[in-house]
Specification:
This protein is mainly beta and 261 residues long. The protein is built from four helices and 15 strands. Strands 2, 3, 4, 5, 6, 7, 9, 10, 11, 12, 13, 14 and 15 form a 13-stranded mixed β-sheet that branches. Bound molecules: ethyl 3-[4-(aminosulfonyl)phenyl]propanoate and zinc ion (ZN). Zinc ion binds next to strand 7. The site of ethyl 3-[4-(aminosulfonyl)phenyl]propanoate (M29) has 9 residues, from strand 9.
């Protein structure tokens, strides 16, 4: 129905405010993280990712990114600790990337972007009954952001890139069982955290962001596989390579970024 949002010149991030006025809100994401201006907060404990019993379900192309969904019907896979008052259930993860190695992440660090950014999306099932309800609440979601930088092959990312040919077109989905995203984590979980939003429409200001300081390393060949995906559906006349599906940094406004030790 109607004209949908995208990442092109006409329907991209600079146009989203027309249909989603919150795009100009006071807690929008992503942001440029300036490490020297982040406040070290000794009350910020470590985060815990309890993913050992996670159940991945499928991998799909939603026309904006490639998404792996999980069974979130109970607390089998949660993130907790750090800035979070409750455990948040893992619902899905997805990526944002560019067309060249230099940019593609959503958050930047002192003005420098990475080639890609992985988002692990969790919701507060203690306070809210559904993801949809949590997605509109100020403390409803917790998204763990992990930067990807280009270097050697990532030894486990092939599990995802090998499946991408099955979800080339918008609206395609396929089974994706037995994948544990723990294999995509860097060696240490030091992080920055701040209150923000979804980085795509509906841009709800419902996300507690936890951005890891240490990137993971993937090869340009592996990243190139993501660019074989299409924004467009199989029947759509025009081929639209899926790349540059990232929103640029938004004004920090009155926010504080805190840093774990
Ligand atoms: C209520 C429906 O809302 C949704 O489906 C939002 C899905 C959605 C989840 C996470 C993100 S991100 N890039 O900020 O991690 C964006 C959009
Ligand atoms: Zn995202």
């Amino acid at each position: 129905t109607g004209h949908h949002w995208g990442y092109g010149k006409e329907d991209g991030p600079s146009a989203w405010h027309r249909q989603y006025p919150v795009a100009k809100g006071n807690r929008q994401s992503p942001i440029d993280i300036i490490p020297d201006e982040a406040r070290r907060d000794s009350s910020l404990g470590p985060i815990f990712l309890k993913y050992d019993r996670c159940t991945s379900l499928n991998i799909s192309n939603n026309g904006h990114s490639v998404v792996v969904e999980f069974n979130d019907s109970d607390d089998r896979s949660v993130i907790q600790g750090g800035p979070l008052d409750n455990p948040y259930r893992l619902k899905q993860f997805h990526f944002h990337w560019g067309e060249k190695g230099c940019e593609g992440s959503e958050h930047t660090v002192a003005g420098v972007g990475y080639a890609s950014e992985l988002h692990l999306v969790h919701w507060n099932a203690v306070k809210y009954k559904t993801f949809e309800e949590a997605a509109t609440a100020p403390d409803g979601l917790a998204v763990l952001g992990i930067f990807l930088e280009v270097g050697d092959d990532h030894r486990w990312l092939h599990m995802i890139t090998d499946a991408l040919y099955m979800v080339k077109f918008k609206g395609s989905s396929t089974d994706f069982k037995g994948f544990n995203p723990k294999c995509l984590l860097p060696s240490n979980l030091h992080y920055w955290t701040y209150l923000g939003s979804l980085t795509t429409p509906p841009l709800h200001e419902s996300v507690i962001w936890i951005v890891l300081k240490e990137p993971i390393v993937v090869s340009d060949k592996q990243l190139g596989m993501f660019r074989l995906l299409q924004f467009s559906g199989e029947e759509d006349g025009r081929r639209m390579r899926m790349e540059n599906n990232f929103r640029p940094p938004q004004p920090l406004k009155e926010r504080l970024v805190r840093s774990s030790n």
